[in-house]
Specification:
Layout lengths: L3 H14 L4 E9 L4 E8 L6 H7 L15 H11 L3 E7 L3 E9 L11 H11 L4 E8 L2 E6 H8 L7 H18 L2
Parallel strand pairs: 1-5
Antiparallel strand pairs: 1-2, 2-4, 3-4, 5-6
Helix pairs in contact: 1-3, 1-4, 4-6
Bound molecules: adenosine-5'-triphosphate and magnesium ion.
The site of adenosine-5'-triphosphate has 20 residues, from helix 1 and helix 3.
Length: 180
């Protein structure tokens, strides 16, 4: 995977498969302490202790179509190559939190990529799931919460093209604002 946005898509898709109703994606960029962290929190079915251990093994997957599960090991590997570390916490019946920390300016740190597009793909494909996206850049922060958007749109489905367009626009605006 070339970009962090692709990792985020994979990790959030794990959350969807785990039956999550709410998925939080937190990105924290701190250029002063030179850190970039990504946190994905879900309220899905979680994992047993032994599943957590196995999940970091690239040959473990509960999917039946393919026998190699790569999402978590690839992200863990990407953090290590960029002077960072990886953390997986999960509680059966409660949910899962994945944290990936990177050296912000590390030469091997993958670029963020099109994170807004990842968000739109997730919302478009999973209209019954709520997503919160928080992006912090030093002291500035932007937040998008589909639960708030749902309140504004009444009966229109969240994955209606016009609504997705609106979410893309406000997210891009927020994203550009915090980086200025
Ligand atoms: N958020 C989560 N909640 C519950 N179980 C999870 C979660 N994330 C991962 N898992 C478990 O860990 C396994 C490994 O996940 P990983 O993303 O590494 O591989 P995969 O999703 O099976 O395959 P791939 O990502 O390569 O398509 C999953 O099959 C699933 O059983
Ligand atoms: Mg996966």
């Amino acid at each position: 995977m070339l970009e962090l946005a692709a990792h985020i898509l994979d990790i959030a898709e794990n959350s969807v498969r785990a039956g999550a109703e709410l998925i939080e994606i937190n990105i924290n960029e701190d250029t002063i302490d030179d850190l970039l962290s990504i946190e994905i929190i879900d309220d899905g079915q979680g994992m047993k202790q032994e599943e957590i251990k196995k999940a970091l093994d690239p040959f473990y997957t509960t999917k039946t179509v393919r026998r190699i599960g790569l999402g978590l090991p690839l992200l863990a590997d990407a953090t290590q190559r960029a002077g960072g570390h990886f953390n997986l916490e999960s509680q059966e019946g409660k949910g899962t939190t994945v944290q990936a920390h990177f050296g912000h300016s590390h030469i091997d740190r993958q670029p963020l990529g099109d994170i807004i597009n990842t968000l739109i793909i997730l919302i478009a494909g999973n209209p019954d799931v709520d997503f919160v996206y928080k992006h912090k850049y030093n002291s500035r922060q932007f937040k998008m919460d589909t639960r708030n958007i749902r309140k504004e749109i009444d009966d229109i489905p969240i994955n209606h093209p016009e609504i997705l367009k609106y979410i893309r626009e406000v997210s891009e605006e927020g994203f550009n604002d915090i980086k200025q």
